[in-house]
Every structure is written in C-alpha cells, then in structure tokens.
Write a structure and sequence with these properties.
Blueprint: H1 11-17, H2 19-27, E1 31-32, E2 35-36, H3 45-50, E3 54-59, H4 61-78, E4 82-86, H5 87-92, E5 101-107, H6 113-125, E6 131-135, H7 141-145, E7 148-151, H8 164-184, H9 189-209, H10 213-223, E8 228-233, H11 237-252, E9 255-260, E10 278-282, H12 288-299, E11 305-310, E12 321-327, H13 334-354
Helix pairs in contact: 2-8, 2-9, 4-8, 4-11, 8-9, 9-13, 10-13, 11-13
The structure holds 6-O-phosphono-alpha-D-glucopyranose.
6-O-phosphono-alpha-D-glucopyranose (G6P) binds at residues 60-63, 107-109, 112, 115, 160-162, 364, 366-368.
Length: 371
C-alpha cells in the first residue's frame, strides 16, 4: 500500500528519490580519510587484485549498462583492459578467459539465471579466475558463489525498472576502480583523493538533479503521444543513452533506441523526421562540439530535440529544441550517475501520463530466474 511506497505514487518514484541516500550508504565504510579501503571487497581482495591484467564484466539489462560505463572508466583512468558482455551471449559463445582476468558479475538480484549460468561456466572451465560479485541481495546465489563481494547498499528495489540499483552499481564500480588503482599502483594518491572527494559529492548532486521534476514532466507531455524515440550520447554517455531508452521502452512501451551519436550517419539518420524525437545527453566535455554537430544533423531533418545538458554548455532552448540544464558540477565519474537521473524521471512521467502499470510493466519480471 501507499505506506510501503513512502507516500509516493509508485515504488519507481520512491526508489528514484532514494538515490541520494542509497549512494551515501554504498560509500559508507568503504572509504576512510580520503582513500578507498580495498578490504571492503573481502579479506583476500588485495592479494587477488594485484595480479589482475584485465577485467571481464558480465551482466544483464540495466546492470549491463552500468558495466558499460565502467569500461570507459577502467580503460581511460587505469589503462586496464576491460570487456563487458551480456550474460546470455557470454555464456554460450566459448569466450577466452585468461588466468589474469578478474570476472566481475553485476546483478541487483543475484538470481538472474543467465548471469549465474555464465558464472558457473567460468568456474568449471577456469577455476583459478577470481570472481567478484557486485550485488544488492546479500543472501543471493551470486553472492554465495563468488570469491569477492561488494554489496550495493541500495535497499530493496521493488519496481521492475531498476533505478537506485544502477546508481549504486556505478558507485561500487568507481570504488573498484580506486581499489584496483591503489593495489596496482596505477593511480596516484592525488588522483585517488580527487576521485574520492568527487564521490562524496554525488549524494548532494543527485538530490539537486531530483529538483528538475516539474520541468521534466513538461518534456514528458511532449513525448507521450510519440511512437518512437532516439537517445544519443557519446563516450560515457552512450551507455546512459542506452539506459534512458531502456527505461522509456520498458515502462511506457514507446519504442526507443539508444545510439552512439557518431553512428547516426550509419543508419538511424534515415529514421529522422518531425515525428522522431531525439533525446541527447550533453555534458561539458571534449566531445561536446561533435555532439552539437550531430544535433544539427537531426534538427535539419525536422527532429524535435530534448537536450539534457551541463549548464556550462550554454545551449539554450528554441523552437523544437528543449534544453534542460541538469548540473554544472560533475566530473568523469559523477556525470553518468547524475545525467541518468532526469532520464529516469522522464520515462516515469511518460509512463504515468500513458497510464501504464509503472511498477509492473507487461511481460517483464523483476528477477529473471529462467533462461
Ligand atoms: C530484469 C529487470 C531489470 C534488470 C535485469 C537484470 O530485466 O527487469 O531491471 O536490470 O533483470 O537483473 P539483475 O538482478 O541481474 O541486475
């Protein structure tokens, strides 16, 4: 009943609003005096991390998108080769897993059948490969079967569409980046401290991102009658575009696709006309100018644009261009977490306006325990 939902209309909205707290809880006890505590991953973590030469992340759904973000971070900041794959593909294609790999399984529930099957496959073929679970369910099969564990402290997530689990997975992956960099000596103490200070600011930034709710509702009103939507992002915002599209399609049933903005000319541009809304994520970074030219390409073909922007980009709304300034204080780690929040709210409001069953979308389950 409504008491369980904390006065919110849906669990999804409650869980979106719980993100500042969930992120703070996930950081709690894992950092001390500005530095990460590698033992947070388990007593043997330091020894096991020391020999890791590559990371293989395996997950499904929204958890997979969190893994995709982490790949950008690990390779860019640590220079650590990182691959990410959906569990159902990884499981069945005979992947090459070298002994110096750390297998990272990401799962909110810890019971997703394909993710568990992928873990068991690696276990049977490569018993020496260490497995780290990043999971939100302490009693789960995934946690029991892994060598190392970092729990996301999101609290129970009821809504089928995952929100706070995703944000806390990203924070956990940032902690893994710090621990890896610290153990392997690939991160200077100064950069580690800077990243930790950035992480500690995320709960307040997430709280601020939630204040755009009424502006996002106004954007949702413009999307509610559309049949399709295209989400574009570059770099670390590409997985956020995928996640924004997934949220919209799963709860509003509007067909939505996420694309790397640079791929427009290789197909999706053919779909653009005045009936195809385009949602872009525009942080202030060295890819902004490229993104702006992608936006000009779709605008020239009549698309209505919805831009979630850093305030510093100086992008301004005009006819058929709706700019929502989201934040101005984010860095490489916090940006995907913060920019994702308004996309969650956008999907939520479109779904409510359409009158769908927001917390229990048709044909979907919270935890997919059969293949
Ligand atoms: C289902 C849920 C998604 C979730 C995915 C993976 O599809 O509806 O919200 O992201 O499973 O679940 P997991 O528990 O492994 O993160």
């Amino acid at each position: 009943d409504s008491a369980d939902r904390g006065g919110f209309k849906h669990f999804m909205l409650k869980e979106i609003h719980e993100q500042p707290r969930a992120i703070a809880d996930t950081l709690e006890g894992r950092i001390s005096e500005g530095r990460v505590l590698p033992a947070a991953f388990g007593v043997t973590a330091e020894a096991r991390f020391a020999d890791v030469a590559r990371i293989q992340i395996v997950a499904c759904g929204t958890s997979y998108h969190a893994g995709m973000v982490a790949r950008y971070w690990f390779e860019d900041i640590l220079g650590l080769p990182t691959s990410v794959e959906v569990s159902s593909e990884f499981h069945y294609r005979n992947p090459v897993v070298s002994r110096d790999t750390l297998l990272v399984m990401l799962s909110q529930s810890g019971e997703t059948a394909d993710t568990l099957a992928a873990l068991r496959m690696v276990r049977s073929r490569h018993p020496d490969v260490p497995v780290l679970a990043i999971c939100n369910a302490p009693e789960s099969s995934l946690v029991r079967e892994s060598d190392l564990v970092l729990m996301t402290h999101a609290g129970p997530e009821i809504s089928v569409a995952s929100t706070k689990a995703f944000s806390t997975q990203l924070v956990s992956l940032a902690l893994l980046l710090l621990a890896m960099g610290r153990v392997q000596g690939t991160l200077s103490e100064e950069i580690e401290r800077r990243i930790v200070a950035g992480l500690e600011k995320i709960p307040a930034l997430a709280q601020a991102a939630l204040t755009h709710d009424s502006a996002i509702l106004a954007l949702a009103e413009r999307l509610v009658d559309k049949q399709h939507a295209l989400f574009l992002g570059r770099g670390v915002m590409f997985p956020i575009a995928l996640e924004g599209a997934l949220k919209l399609k799963e709860i509003s049933y509007i067909h939505a696709e996420g694309y790397p903005a640079g791929e427009l000319k290789h197909g999706p541009l053919a779909l653009i006309d005045e009936n195809m809304p385009v949602i872009t994520i525009a942080p202030q970074n060295d890819l902004l100018e490229k993104l702006k030219s992608n936006m000009a390409e779709v605008a020239a073909r009549g698309a209505e644009l919805f831009v979630f922007a850093d305030e510093r980009t100086a992008l301004a709304s005009e006819e058929r261009l709706h700019v929502l300034p989201v934040t101005s204080h984010v860095g490489r780690i916090s940006a995907p977490i913060i920019f994702n929040i308004p996309l969650q709210l956008l999907a939520y409001h479109v779904a409510v306006l359409k009158g769908t069953d927001v917390d229990q979308p048709r044909n979907l389950a919270k935890s997919v325990t059969v293949e």
